[in-house]
Amino acid sequence: MRHVIDQAVAWQRSGIRFAMATVVRTWGSSPHGPGASMLVSENGRVVGSVSGGCVEAAVCATAEEVLAGAAPVLERWGVGDEDAFAIGLTCGGTIEVLTREVEADAPLARLAADIAAGRPVALVTPLDGNGCLVVGGGTTTGSIGDAQADRAASLAADCLLTRAITGLVTSGNDSSDDACCTPERELLVQPVASRPRLLIFGAAEFARPLADLGAALGLRVTVCDARPAFATAARFPSADEVVTERPDRWFRDHEHLVDTSTAVCVLSHDTRFDVPVLTLALRSGAGYVGAMGSRRTHEDRLGRLRAAGLTDAELARLRSPIGLDLGGRGPEETALSILAEIVSVRRGGTGLPLTVRSGPVHGT
Predict the structure, then answer these.
(1) Structure pTM?
(2) For the chain, how far is it from start to end, CA to CA, in angstroms?
(3) pLDDT, tens digit (0-9, with 9 covering 90-100), for 291-345
(4) Local structure of 361: helix, strand or coil
(5) pLDDT digits 0-9 by tens, 281-290
(6) Within the chain, where are the H helices?
(7) C-alpha pair distances (Å), 205 with each of 196, 298, 328, 332
(8) Beta strand 241-244 with 220-225: parallel, antiparallel or unpaired?
């Protein structure tokens, strides 16, 4: 969603008209959940996806009609529909997509600014496609009609924004203040989180593809190494920041930025650096902490970490040797195995081949 919003802001600033198609509901197996969005510009450019390729052509056709003057459209496609194979929806699920033109004054710039600053924020869109709001930090920008409707929508969206869950709510039926006096409207609330952090400690050769792949997955990448010759922006062009500093010192100064979405990867292979930073990371709120090394290195590292005072529960959080067993070799394939494990931990995956599992491929 973040790169879609960035592109939408760029088109707004350039005066380019565009439609946004957004997944509103899903049933069964679907590649993307509610909130997945795709942009179609007046000159035919497409950014984003609503189904991983299944119905994009049909949605583009709808977007062109909307840009030609048609009203916002709420469409549903399922594998049981007569035209399912004609549009390519063969994954077994059903999706509902809202397509509407985005107004030139829609508050997307504020949305992008809040996302970049890491502030909790949500885009709120009525399913009738008329107007939109950006809600967060106790303030509302934009409009879906009038001040009373905007207040009702903001009140209705607060619960999902607080929980960071994309979903549908109904405004106008709140008993507080004057919200109950507004007509009921169904709203899609899309909280947009700030980019999860990937902290790479140790600017080794394996760190280069890890930073590249992490950036490709939309992570905010920091590379930190105490050696100036290795920690250079030229070696890590895809990283958001490259820092020359002792890893434990940098971590201590920035621990307030670490949360459950943060992945910490220690690649230094140097006990002077990896033990101090792992001690901090394993006691932090980081959702993933991994360290590179052989099994012998891992056993030696565990002993040093115990000597540093870490408990068995804290040590159990350490993923070492780092990564999933893909049988890969070299920096690029190793980076892939590390990111695969990070995604599996974050999403609750099993790491097993889909061929040995049953049930929906994309969950429910």
Answers:
(1) 0.69
(2) 20
(3) 998 899 999 999 999 999 999 999 999 999 999 999 888 999 999 999 999 999 9
(4) coil
(5) 999 999 999 9
(6) 2-14, 56-67, 84-87, 108-117, 147-163, 207-216, 247-254, 271-282, 295-307, 312-315, 330-347
(7) 23, 20, 16, 10
(8) parallel
